[in-house]
Design goal:
about 120 residues, Integrase, 2 domains, globular, mainly alpha
Amino acid sequence: MGIKGTHFVKRYKTRKEAKEAELDILTKIHQLENGENLVFSKDGNILFSDFYKHIWWEAYKAGQTTSTTKPPSQATIDGTEIVFKRHILPMFANFSIDFLNQNKQYYIQQLLHLFLFLKISLNQ
């Protein structure tokens, strides 16, 4: 999915899938405009934990976070969920996406340390 200004590009296998996604996005926009959906913030100040739970996780399981249209296997989903719940969410859950974006270098280092820790743990 490529985000360019006020437009984004995402390809779907069928016209029906594309229409369903369009309807979902329009519904979310309507909810935001009416203040109905408090998870999303007009100023982009959504917590990482809310983004994970309400936006990214379902899209990931459906295979919408990659350039392929094939969803990940159940084993991959289970493994990803474990890594997020044990390591990534405890580290980032209470930070806003904006804050993490403004402090990228520090958090990239944190993720690098986590990656090295997990790699060493798997090799033992």
